Amino acid sequence: MLLSRFLNSMSIATQMPYVTELLSLNERTMAYNLQLTPRDIQDLMTARTQVLYSYGRVELGIEATKELIEVFSTSPYICQENYLSTLNELHEIFYYLKNETEDKIGDFKLIAMMKEYFDDECAGSLKLLRNNLEEFAENFRIQTMRQEYLKEGDDES
After folding, report:
1. Dihedral sign (CA 31, 35, 38, 43)
2. 1 vs 54, 57, 68, CA distance in Å?
């Protein structure tokens, strides 16, 4: 846990280049009337760092954050008023899923799945998204354990 705290505190000091990088995404998201200010991005990065720390994770880049912004900005359920808070919650859900699936699903695939659930079954509800994805993670773990058990059985033959 100390290593993740150390690395995440270092990342806070190096976030300024990320602010510029994330601000450039506004060019794409403006088409959906969504925009992050430099202060919003600092808040987003602070919330992201807290989520990473709470899950004991270290993330050296911001590719997942950029993908969350780009993918979810097209959702009809996100507006400027809930944009930042939704992105913060999506980070929480994303890293929860990364832990629960033991990083066995790639970031882009996981984000695409989250978006599909969010826009379709959940109709923009973050609470429903979390519930549905918690159920998905549980089923994923069960399937993974089952496959590992069957694979171990093959090895013993």
Report:
1. negative
2. 9, 9, 26
Residue with tokens 């890293």: 95
End-to-end Cα separation, the chain, in angstroms: 40
Instruction: Taking residues 67-83, report their average pLDDT.
Output: 98
d(CA 1, CA 52): 11
**Measured between alpha carbons, how far is 69 from 133 in angstroms, rounded to an integer?**
19
Q: What is the structure's pLDDT at 14?
A: 58
The answer to whether the beta carbons of residues 102 and 59 sit under 8 Å apart is no
Q: Cα–Cα distances in Å, from 149 out to 59, 138, 142, 146?
A: 31, 16, 10, 5
- Radius of gyration for the chain, computed over Cα atoms and rounded to the nearest angstrom: 17
This prediction has a pTM of 0.84
Comparing CA positions, the residue from 63, 72, 62, 65 lying closest to residue 29 is 72
Cα Dmax for the chain: 60
pLDDT over 50 at 68, yes or no: yes
Compute the average pLDDT of residues 119-140. 96
Instruction: Assign 84 a pLDDT band (cuts: 50, 70, 90).
Output: very high
Residues 6+ apart with CB under 8 A from 133: 93, 96, 97, 114, 117
